[in-house]
Amino acid sequence: MTATHVPGLPVIEDNQLISTNPATGEEAGRVPAADEQAVRAAVERAKEAAAWWQGLGWDGRRTRLLRWRSLLVERIDELAELTRLESGKPVNDGLIEITAAVEHLDWAARHAKKVLGPRRMRTRLLLAEHVGHLEYQPFGVVGVIGPWNYPIVTPIGPISGALAAGNAVVFKPSEYTPVVGQWLVDTFAEIVPEQPVLQAVHGLGDIGGALCRSGVGKVSFTGSTATGKKVMAACAENLVPVVIEAGGKDALIVDFDADVRAAAEAAVWGSMTNAGQTCIGIERVYAVAPVYDAFVAAVVEKAGKLRTGEEIGPITMPRQLDIIRDHIEDALAKGGRAVLGGADAVQAPYVAPTVFVDVPEDSSEIREETFGPTLTITRVSDVDEAISKANDSPYGLGGSVFGKKNAVRAARRLRSGMVAVNGTLTFVGMGNLPFGGVGESGFGRIHGEDGLREFARPKAITVRRAKSLLPAMTFERTPAQVRQIVKALRLLYGRKP
Ligand code: NAD
């Protein structure tokens, strides 16, 4: 019997990766573990599968992706239950996660041809006798590396974009949720049995590293910022392009004219859903002075009703409990006041909802990703101060603004890839909107038109239609012809606007 056990990480035993139910500590399931050679073999198989998949054309791929979408809908309860077993996520949260995933799969399948299909481009001055063609060609094989916190919607975004664009995908699910990852791959194979167009390779972080070095054309990574940097470094060895969807420390701003109860409800949902283990989760609130007291009271009332073990599931990754405990202790040590939960909130594997006020801006609870059901609320004098404090973070993933008059203007000024006005996390539910961050939250986009373009290379082709009357790009041109070209240039572009 061979066993690999890095403390705090899932166990690999007899070449099987074993995942654990975080609520009970019992085995949740097991999948075959890959090694570097198996990763390379999967990518080689995927190259052949990609050629076959491309041969199906836009319409053939669309039909199959839509059939997979319908399968996910049909078996939604089974998948939500599996997610609960493996990640601890409450079933209702799982059902909503799958709903968002279905939306992205549907959108990518239906829009790939329109967004990426070939198009003719208008002739320009120097090339009057030529026509331009723009095509978006797939990379071949895309590597997708996923996290455990949203083990369905986070990988489905890049997987559906990459597949719709004509790529095959080799998917490395998180070691904490490999069974859910394998379920996605197996159900896709029920719809597309002919070729391994979507495969999974399982293991710890080294298998993600092996995927980066395996000859894939592009990597889409979702996970922590620290790992994102390692993924970029591994991909840099062969100039493999990457999308990095990393961590966040999203802020919510409550302005003077906000609906305070709606803002409180959204702040509680945005910070505590999935036990706070949400990349775009609200971790900080900046509330302007006139509404601050009412807002704090409403948040405490609403968050106080949440029950651990019911709406608040267990913390999926045991070592995250130490980080959450550290942040809570740091906030208290620096003078923060817990108005709900606090010092004893961490009761493994659960963390009770915790709400802080008066936490200084240099506390880890304000500066670092906590990834637990905790929230800080800070009083600010106006929306300008709120924006300046919200933007004072290396991260820039999402954010939220509650208010009426200035809300959309404030949303534009937040340094982040997405903002919800009078809501939280809402932008992840729209298949036609791009998703991704700035700064230490990463770069590149999944979802929407930009998310489709991530998984294809633009290719420019010019085709001569006739002999040139005014040849420019040849040594055969005469000085008189060049003068005529310059005359045309002056006519077309010389006039000052
Ligand atoms: P993680 O970085 O620990 O792991 C993510 C994945 O990377 C896993 O599959 C892991 O096995 C793999 N990995 C680990 N080391 C690797 C290496 N050296 N090379 C290649 N791959 C490697 O992240 P996690 O704990 O699974 O997920 C939580 C983090 O993900 C949080 O920071 C959260 O904010 C972030 N996240 C971001 C988004 C987003 O869209 N921006 C979405 C969900 C989660």
UniProtKB/TrEMBL annotation:
Keyword hit for Acyltransferase: no
GO molecular function, one term: oxidoreductase activity, acting on the aldehyde or oxo group of donors, NAD or NADP as acceptor
GO biological process: aldehyde metabolic process
PROSITE patterns in alphabetical order: ALDEHYDE_DEHYDR_GLU
CDD domains according to UniProt: ALDH_DDALDH
Domain called Aldehyde dehydrogenase: residue spans: 16-461
Pfam families: Aldedh
InterPro entries in the record: Ald_DH/histidinol_DH, Ald_DH_C, Ald_DH_CS_GLU, Ald_DH_N, Aldehyde_DH_dom, Aldehyde_DH_NAD(P)
Keywords: Oxidoreductase
Active-site residues, record numbering mapped to chain: 245, 279
Family note: Belongs to the aldehyde dehydrogenase family.
Name by which UniProt lists this protein: Aldehyde dehydrogenase
